[in-house]
Task: inverse folding
């Protein structure tokens, strides 16, 4: 297809992922409109065919169509015979124009062949004259009965026009489908992109006793310097830490490809880092990094 020329492919290959998606979306919209137009054209053709079938029942229409077929046959024969006449005329003239040669016999044979060709040409021209006369006669009948066949002639003209339009739309649809198919075929399956990840932990209300080492106490700096265990309640809710990393994603859905590096390695590293952060912030004794969501 001309639409898939090498130059066109080079232009499409140079587009980025977002530009390709935009192009595909625009062409799919146009393709839908083409399908609607083709449906309308087919509907119109169907209506015209039904009207032609009804017109066929009229005697005037039947005579018109029969004469039209005869006219078409006559024109085909006349054109074919004329091509044969032109070919034979050229051959006869070429034989007559060949310079004299030493052999008188050869020249005599050529002239006899040329004379035979001229006789054949004359007979063919006679047939041409007779069939031209018949053609003019049929065309005259068609002209005289034209007022009676206006409807069928209009319908036949409309059918030819709508058939041409339907063929054009069908060809355009093939071109658009080929373009879309090529653009989809070069869409990358994965792309490297920077993404933001939120790791969060749900913490219930509770308390934690300081210090972490069993049996030790903090000293409150109060007038009596009494010793007491220091209890701190930690908050309740969902707490998250947002990190950024470069990883491969599926461009069609935007999902991270967790089965590919570097995410397979970064996943454990980021979880461990956030777990340490939460343990420090909320004074948690232990936290499994894979408990983070």
Result:
């Amino acid at each position: 297809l001309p639409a898939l020329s090498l130059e066109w492919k080079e232009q499409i290959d140079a587009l980025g992922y977002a530009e390709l998606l935009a192009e595909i979306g625009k062409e799919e919209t146009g393709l839908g409109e083409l399908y609607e137009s083709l449906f309308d054209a087919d509907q119109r053709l169907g209506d015209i065919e039904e009207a032609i079938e009804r017109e066929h029942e009229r005697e005037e229409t039947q005579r018109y169509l029969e004469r039209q077929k005869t006219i078409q046959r006559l024109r085909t024969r006349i054109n074919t015979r004329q091509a044969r006449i032109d070919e034979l005329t050229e051959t006869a003239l070429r034989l007559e124009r060949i310079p004299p040669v030493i052999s008188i016999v050869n020249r005599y044979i050529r002239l006899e062949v040329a004379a035979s060709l001229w006789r054949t040409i004359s007979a063919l021209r006679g047939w041409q004259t007779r069939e031209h006369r018949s053609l003019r006669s049929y065309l005259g009948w068609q002209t005289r009965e034209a007022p009676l066949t206006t409807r069928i002639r209009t319908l036949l003209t409309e059918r030819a026009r709508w058939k041409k339009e339907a063929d054009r739309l069908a060809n355009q649809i093939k071109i658009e489908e080929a373009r879309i198919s090529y653009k989809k075929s070069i869409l990358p399956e994965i792309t490297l992109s920077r993404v933001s990840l939120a790791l969060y932990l749900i913490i219930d209300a509770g308390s934690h006793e300081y210090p972490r080492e069993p049996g030790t106490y903090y000293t409150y700096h109060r007038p009596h310097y009494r010793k007491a265990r220091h209890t701190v309640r930690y908050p309740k809710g969902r707490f998250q830490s947002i990190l950024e990393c470069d990883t491969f994603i599926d461009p069609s859905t935007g999902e991270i490809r967790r089965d590919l590096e570097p995410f397979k390695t970064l996943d454990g590293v980021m979880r461990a880092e956030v777990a340490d952060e939460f343990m420090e912030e909320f004074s948690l004794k232990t936290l499994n990094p894979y408990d983070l969501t």
Remarks:
- The helical segments are 6-13, 17-55, 59-97, 104-144, 150-185, 263-282.
- Residues 207-214 have pLDDT under 50 and may be disordered.
- Strands lie at 191-203, 206-210, 218-219, 227-228, 230-234, 237-249.
- DSSP finds six helices and six strands in the chain.
